[in-house]
Amino acid sequence: MRINFRLALLALFLSTTLWVLVVNDQNPERTDTPDFSIPVEISKVPSGLVVMNTIEPVRVKIRAAKDKWTDLRIASFRAYVDLSRLGPGIQAVPIVSEGSDPQVRVLEVIPSTVSVRLEEIQERTVPVKVNLLGNVPFGYVYGTAKADPEVVVVAGPASLVQSVESASVDVRLDGISVDIDSAFHPLAADSARNTVRNISVEPQTVKVRLPVQQQVSYKQVGVRASLTGTVAPGYWVESVSAEPSSVTVVGNPELLAAINYLETESLSVDAVSSGVVQDVKIVVPQGLSLTQQQTARVRVSVSPLQTSQVVRVAPRVINVDPKLRVTGGPAYIEVVLQGPAPIMQGIHVDSLVVTVDANGLGEGAFSVKPVIVTPPAVSVASVQPESVGLVLAPAQVATPTPTSTASATIASGTSTSGPLRPTAEATPSSSSTPTAGLSR
Fold it and tell me: Most buried residue among 60, 132, 143, 434 by CB atoms closer than 10 A?
């Protein structure tokens, strides 16, 4: 029996094509970008170089059958850059991505390239600097700290190594009452004592020795605020205080014997016209130390100078009954005012309102205390006289004069207010009734 290979191959092709069409119809392929990002691995960094920048995650465009999409995860893909052929500098490098499932094809990486900055690794020798933090307990003093070794080698990216000025070692003294002889890990630091990261230090530890001795000599002394400058004109420094008012000083007995107080750093009160509150450092002589607080809160009370001034003013009579008139009383009184100098400098006669209230008074002579209204912050120290004599008489009636008509006109010009003018004292009539609080 002869086999027709051509017909067999045609049949195989047709059956395969039919199978693919059926499969694609039931499980079609989908081309899309998954909704997640893939971290980029850095591969094959050349010796002596270091990557200085961070590479952001990327996304990939893929093609896969519909049933494969539900199983896709970040771990289903790998993205990396090959730096084996790069040198120092900033260069664009293609990103390679591949999937763990061969039936999932990566069509595109988004973005397709990334900028990579490579720097040479440098070494540098820097000194070890010991930073003493805090203070030893009361009654103890410490000497000079020494590091062994005194220099170390720092290594890392060239730009970072150049900024390193020292290897910093922090040693805390709080609660320390015995000599320190311990190993510490130094950290690379710049000129501002900020830690420079991504720098290695060799050796990784240094030994620090610091003598600590008990010091039994101590003394309680006062704290005195030091002021400079002159307050504003018309003001004076009323009081100065420092908190704490005393501190405990520890040190050499000979130095302590000559000290009875410590001063603060100078606090300027130049041209101030109000109180000042400020924290100021306490100045400690060399060779001595404080057990605790290093600053004092200085309070300066500044007040205006109190001055007095005599003002001669004419009182004004108010509330006179329309049927009466003022016929007698002193023309002026002397008022002694007291108040802050800046305000008193502007005081004049028009600054005061002095009135004599005749409300409720009838005909007669009365002794009335004047009412004095002063500017704010100004008070009346004394008044001479304390009371003024007030004489009220009936309002004058105009005398009729011959006219073409025989009518008489009554004057209505009653004085209701105005400065007191001396006149003959009037005698009250027997029908007058004194007003309460006034003397006749």
Answer: 60
Whether 297 and 315 share a structural domain: no
The answer on 278 and 330 residing in a single domain is: no
pTM reported for the whole predicted model: 0.41
Which domain does 238 fall in, by range? 219-304
- How far is the C-alpha of 289 from the C-alpha of 328, rounded, in Å? 79
